[in-house]
């Protein structure tokens, strides 16, 4: 019996919601209703895994993500907390808002609700819509020609959110207003405390339960969270709850901000220490609770990266500390790699996907992405792979981590490479005939063969999907170099794309990898802890945090690091 | 120059009078915001956020939460008021008013040179006296419907329209009386479930003597309505979790794997069969039916098997509902299906499903002796429902407080007026300048009847004079009648407040006010600026 194997997604924290917004925008682009049959249906992603069907009070059918998101006050911008599909708010951001307000007021006055004292209406000035959202409301979004300058103007993820959420999805932390330069919810302990507070816990757990109740065959959870701030505490506690109540697989993605955001009452030195302690505590919990976790960041290293050195990807150029652009890259990775368990014809479950790359309790994995893939126009995959023999295809997205090219366990997903571009038919093949890869019949087979040859002593699992990554607005199309054609393939030689043509889509390759070299990542973290003096971190000591707990976390971290010793595996 | 500025020239600070001025102005500001809310004639606030979210409330606590309070003093007062709400569920607005007024009155004397320390000592004396007065005027009550109705009604009338308040009063009192069931044990208000239903045309609140759950059967063939139902509550997984088995699977052939999977499935099927067996044993040949309510999941195959037997099965019930079900219908929540007996089952006269948009509700009603009930709130939109819900919660708390205290205090400002008169008398027996503080405390208490009068459109001074005079003459307490502005006896109109609420207010307000008065230096110097 074929059932939808539902997955519930969580987003804790502002940066996670940035990535999430891009991710869900991408999902809507993945909805392909292709009647001409260019792409076989069974090769497309199964949207029902992440989405639910519903009915709003206007009797309209809705299709919204199975998502629970938590963020600070003020990040929602124009979005009402209840979402826009199910009513229960005043459309103040529209022009006719005075009418609506009056109507609502009259309605309240007619109802039996009021005391004889009368009604006192207090309105905050309506939030101004971003230009993109304005056009979206009017239905005049011009993805080809108009420049919305989202990278410079967008002040929160709501500004470029195209997807629409269910009323259950959004949670806002009461009384915590977002500040751009300071983490409002600073420490892991603060997050834990918040999770335990009745006001948050009851309602949030109930929402999880409502989602779970709808699912026939819930297979697991995807968790995105900001590891640099208190949302890490919230997320680790939530994961604990999920394991207790539902015992399903969980794929956790701790995200690091692409810039160093300070904390309340902390100089750069204490800020650094807080960041390290947050990470230590989170890693400790994740190593015990998560089925697999993959730290993500566009930065090269974290924890003592004073210069904020960013990763570079051939063919891409983004402002390193721009939340909007960097989150799009992480979302592109997330969307591509999760295709590994979201395709229609795959027998793969989230659990199998995770366990395949986490042998011997190595449940921390590294991320690698190639966007755009770097294939030239008219070039076949077989030639591309043949030509790139010596350089790695992937750029690492896990900070301070190079899995290397031997003894790697990995799962790889390619997208956007049409079957016709695999190789030439026999009569035109020429030199391709002599290559061993010529007998491969699919993209995934060829990648498998490639990695068998390129990586020594490694285990690879490959999947592929013909749908490329959609890079139209609200994706930051401007990050592509001029040498990339509109379809995301590399232009020949020094040729450049015409100025006013934008990259519409791009092929991509994403991987989760594990090797004993990942231990270095944990070593860096542990190395940083020597400088931390917990007693001096007031935000920690004040909330009654025990030193023993920190010491246990450190010990466990070392134990966890031992899993990555060579002797342990292979 | 403050010593801190020697260490850190960037530190901001305010000393003595200036520091006091900061605190007092914050307290006054907060008081001004909340003033119009107090009492049954206070205005209701409708808050519309920049994104269009609506909130309608009169509850001081809700308002305080919603205002972005940045001022350190104001947030301290707000926290006191929140604590008040957490412990008693009422009196938040009063707390804010009283702290503000205490500081305002103190300010008059302090500006004439009285030392804050003496002020604080006087406050302490005055508070002790006031508590003594409270102890004297409290009216011991029997826990019966009439008394509970009066207290709940007083509380609810300050939150919603009188007509609605009367309806809610009935509902709340019935709810509490049903679950308390004349037993002497403390009442667990969690056993009153508040369920909301958003319904376009219907505004109604009713008490369901049973349980309403926010989910329904997930199988099309399951019965929508059952009479005479056995209820089995369980916390047993009825889904085949591939998750748990895959990792331990070792197989050589496809057939072998199949066998493993079948064995695994068999395990779940056994559990389902046990339920079916029990159902057949207790229901066959009678007109009884069977309902399974599970805290864990039930997968489609199990649902299918249960549906064929005519069993209504619900999955993923709220954890708290397990407890509630056991109290409402009897029976025990089962953690395993080994050794299932009839005595483990509960009973409900009718169980039916109600569908509203994408939401399903399941009613478990007509229970024999329900010790857990549901208050069902219907409203046309979310903010209406929330408003009613907040009001009900406060009403329930007020009833619960009364049952705990076994005493009430006459309301409508009566206690404050009596305390004022007593304190004025008491003042003469206090030695030294502390008597000024007692006077200040007495004056501050009057802010409650004053505001009540002003909010109802009467003259504050006029009312106070009338009330204090009347109070001195009458041995009984005298409060203000908000419909006429004249003095009246609260006991005649049934206006009562909770004893514990008043007590808590007196305690916390005097402490916070004293603390704020004793602040003689306010400084701001963050870690960052310390390191320069």
Distance between the termini of chain A: 38 Å
Tell me the strand order in the biggest sheet of chain B: 7-12-11-8-9-10
* Oligomeric state of this protein: heterodimer
Low-confidence stretches of chain A: none
Write down the overall geometry of chain A: globular
Strand fraction of chain A equals: 15-25%
**Residue runs with pLDDT of under 50 for 5 or more positions of chain B:** 243-248, 527-532
Number of domains as seen in the coordinates of chain B: 2
The main β sheet of chain A shows up as:
6 strands, parallel
Structural class of chain B: alpha+beta
Count of helix runs of chain B: 20
Please identify which CATH superfamily of the largest domain in chain B we are dealing with. Answer: GroEL-like equatorial domain
Structural class by secondary-structure content of chain A = alpha/beta
Number of helices of chain A: 15
CATH class of the largest domain in chain B: Mainly Alpha
Which shape of chain B, going by the Cα principal axes? elongated
Largest sheet of chain B: 6 strands, mixed
Largest interface summary: A-B, 71 and 64 residues
What portion of residues of chain B is helical?
40-55%
Strand order in the largest sheet of chain A = 6-4-1-8-9-11
Would you write up a description of this structure?
The complex is a heterodimer of chains A (570) and B (532). With 570 residues, chain A is of the alpha/beta class. Chain A has a domain of 164 residues. In chain A, the strands form five sheets. In chain A, strands 6-4-1-8-9-11 form a six-stranded parallel sheet, sandwiched between helices. A five-stranded mixed sheet of chain A has the order 13-12-18-14-15, sandwiched between helices. In chain A, helix 8 crosses helix 13, helix 8 packs across helix 15 and helix 13 runs antiparallel to helix 15. The two termini of chain A are 38 Å apart. By secondary structure, chain B is an alpha+beta fold. Chain B contains 20 helices and 18 strands. In chain B, strands 7-12-11-8-9-10 form a six-stranded mixed sheet, sandwiched between helices. Chain B has a three-stranded antiparallel sheet with strand order 4-14-17, sandwiched between helices. A three-stranded mixed sheet of chain B has the order 5-13-6, with helices on one face. Chain B is elongated. The C terminus of chain B is likely disordered. At the A-B interface, helix 2, strand 5, strand 6, helix 6 and helix 10 of A face strand 2, helix 8, helix 9 and helix 13 of B. Strand 5 of chain A pairs parallel with strand 2 of chain B.
């Amino acid at each position: 019996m074929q059932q939808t194997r539902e997955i519930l997604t969580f987003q804790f924290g502002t940066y996670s919601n940035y990535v999430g917004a891009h991710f869900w925008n991408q999902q809507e682009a993945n909805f392909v209703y292709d009647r001409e049959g260019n792409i076989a249906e069974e090769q497309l992603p199964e949207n029902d895994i992440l989405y639910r069907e519903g009915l709003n009070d206007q009797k309209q059918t809705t299709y919204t993500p199975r998502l629970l998101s938590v963020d600070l006050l003020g990040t929602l911008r124009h979005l009402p907390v209840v979402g826009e599909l199910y009513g229960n708010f005043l459309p103040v951001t529209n022009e006719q808002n005075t009418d609506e307000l009056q109507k609502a007021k009259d309605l309240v006055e007619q109802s039996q609700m009021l005391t004889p004292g009368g009604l006192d209406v207090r309105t905050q000035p309506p939030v101004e819509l971003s230009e993109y959202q304005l056009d979206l409301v009017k239905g005049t979004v011009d993805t080809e020609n108009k420049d919305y300058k989202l990278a410079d103007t967008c002040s929160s993820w709501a500004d470029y959110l195209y997807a629409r959420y269910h009323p259950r999805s959004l949670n806002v932390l009461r009384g915590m207003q977002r500040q751009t330069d300071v983490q409002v919810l600073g420490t892991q302990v603060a997050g834990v405390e918040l999770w335990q507070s009745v006001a948050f816990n009851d309602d949030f757990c109930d929402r999880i339960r409502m989602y779970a109740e709808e699912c026939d065959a819930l297979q697991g959870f995807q968790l995105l969270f900001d590891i640099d701030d208190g949302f890490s505490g919230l997320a680790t506690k939530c994961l604990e709850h999920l394991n207790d109540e539902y015992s399903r697989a969980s794929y956790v993605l701790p995200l690091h901000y692409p810039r160093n955001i300070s904390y309340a009452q902390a100089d750069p030195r204490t800020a650094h220490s807080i960041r390290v302690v947050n990470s230590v505590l989170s890693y400790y919990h994740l190593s015990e609770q998560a089925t697999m976790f993959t730290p993500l960041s566009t930065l090269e290293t974290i924890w003592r990266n004073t210069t904020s050195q960013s990763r570079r990807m051939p063919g891409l150029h983004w402002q390193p500390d721009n939340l909007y652009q960097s989150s799009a890259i992480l979302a592109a990775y997330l969307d591509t790699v999760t295709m590994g368990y979201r395709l229609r014809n795959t027998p793969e479950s989230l659990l199998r996907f995770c366990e395949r790359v986490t042998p011997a309790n190595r449940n921390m994995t590294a991320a690698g992405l190639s966007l755009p893939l770097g294939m030239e126009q008219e070039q076949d995959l077989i030639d591309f792979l043949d030509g790139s023999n010596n350089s790695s295809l992937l750029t690492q997205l896990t900070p301070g981590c190079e899995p290397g090219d031997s003894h790697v366990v990995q799962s790889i997903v390619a997208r956007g490479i049409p079957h016709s571009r695999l190789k030439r038919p026999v009569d035109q093949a020429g030199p391709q005939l002599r290559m061993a890869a010529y007998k491969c019949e699919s993209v995934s087979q060829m990648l498998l063969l490639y990695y068998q040859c390129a990586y020594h002593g490694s285990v690879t699992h490959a999947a592929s999907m013909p749908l490329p990554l959609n890079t139209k607005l609200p994706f930051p199309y401007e990050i592509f170099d001029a040498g990339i054609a509109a379809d995301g393939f590399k232009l020949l030689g020094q040729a450049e794309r015409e100025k006013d043509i934008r990259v519409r889509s791009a092929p991509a390759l994403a991987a989760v990898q594990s090797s004993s070299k990942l231990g270095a990542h944990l070593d860096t973290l542990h190395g940083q802890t020597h400088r931390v003096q917990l007693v001096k971190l007031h935000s920690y000591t004040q909330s009654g945090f025990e030193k023993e707990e920190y010491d246990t976390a450190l010990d466990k971290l070392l134990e966890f690091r031992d899993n990555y010793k060579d002797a342990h595996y292979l | 120059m403050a010593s801190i500025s020697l260490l850190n020239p960037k530190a901001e600070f305010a000393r003595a009078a200036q520091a006091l001025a900061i605190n007092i102005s914050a307290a006054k500001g907060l008081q001004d915001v909340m003033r119009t809310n107090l009492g049954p004639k206070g205005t209701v606030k409708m808050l519309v956020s920049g994104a269009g979210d609506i909130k309608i409330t009169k509850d001081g606590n809700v308002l305080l939460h919603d205002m972005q309070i940045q001022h350190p003093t104001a947030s301290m007062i707000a926290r006191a008021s929140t604590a008040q709400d957490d412990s008693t569920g009422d009196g938040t607005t009063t707390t804010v008013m009283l702290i503000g007024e205490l500081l305002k009155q103190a300010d008059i004397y302090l500006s004439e040179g009285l030392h804050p320390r003496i002020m604080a000592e006087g406050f302490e004396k005055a508070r002790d006296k006031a508590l003594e007065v409270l102890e004297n005027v409290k009216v011991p009550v029997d826990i019966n419907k009439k008394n509970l109705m009066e207290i709940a009604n007083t509380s609810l009338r300050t939150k919603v329209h009188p007509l609605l308040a009367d309806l809610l009063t009935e509902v709340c009192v019935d709810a509490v009386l049903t679950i308390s069931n004349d037993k002497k044990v403390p009442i667990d208000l969690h056993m009153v479930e508040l369920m909301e239903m958003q319904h376009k045309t219907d505004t109604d609140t009713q008490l369901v003597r049973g349980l309403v759950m926010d989910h329904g059967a997930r199988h099309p063939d399951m019965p929508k309505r059952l009479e005479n139902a056995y209820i089995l509550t369980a916390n047993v997984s009825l889904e085949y979790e591939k998750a748990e088995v895959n990792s331990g699977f070792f197989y050589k052939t496809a057939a072998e794997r199949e066998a493993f999977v079948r064995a695994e499935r068999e395990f779940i099927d056994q559990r389902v069969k046990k339920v079916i067996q029990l159902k057949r044993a207790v229901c066959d040949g009678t007109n009884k039916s069977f309902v399974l309510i599970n805290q864990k999941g039930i997968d489609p195959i199990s649902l299918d098997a249960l549906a064929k037997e005519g069993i209504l099965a619900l999955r993923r019930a709220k954890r708290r509902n397990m407890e509630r079900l056991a109290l409402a219908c009897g029976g025990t929540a089962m953690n395993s299906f080994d050794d299932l007996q009839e005595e483990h089952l509960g009973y409900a006269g009718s169980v039916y499903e109600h569908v509203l948009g994408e939401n399903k509700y399941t009613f478990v009603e007509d229970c024999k002796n329900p010790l857990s009930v549901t208050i069902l709130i219907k409203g046309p939109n979310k903010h209406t429902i929330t408003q009613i819900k907040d009001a009900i919660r406060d009403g329930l708390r007020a009833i619960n407080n009364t049952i705990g205290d076994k005493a009430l205090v006459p309301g409508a400002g009566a206690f404050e007026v009596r305390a004022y008169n007593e304190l004025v008398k008491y003042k003469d027996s206090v030695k030294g300048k502390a008597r000024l503080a007692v006077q200040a405390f007495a004056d501050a208490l009057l802010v409650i009847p004053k505001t009540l009068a002003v909010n109802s459109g009467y003259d504050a001074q006029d009312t106070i004079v009338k009330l204090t005079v009347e109070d001195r003459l009458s041995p009984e307490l005298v409060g203000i009648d908000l419909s006429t502005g004249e003095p009246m006896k609260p006991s005649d109109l049934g206006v009562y407040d909770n004893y514990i609420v008043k007590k808590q207010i007196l305690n916390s307000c005097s402490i916070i006010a004293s603390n704020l008065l004793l602040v003689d230096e306010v400084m701001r110097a963050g870690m960052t600026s310390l390191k320069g």
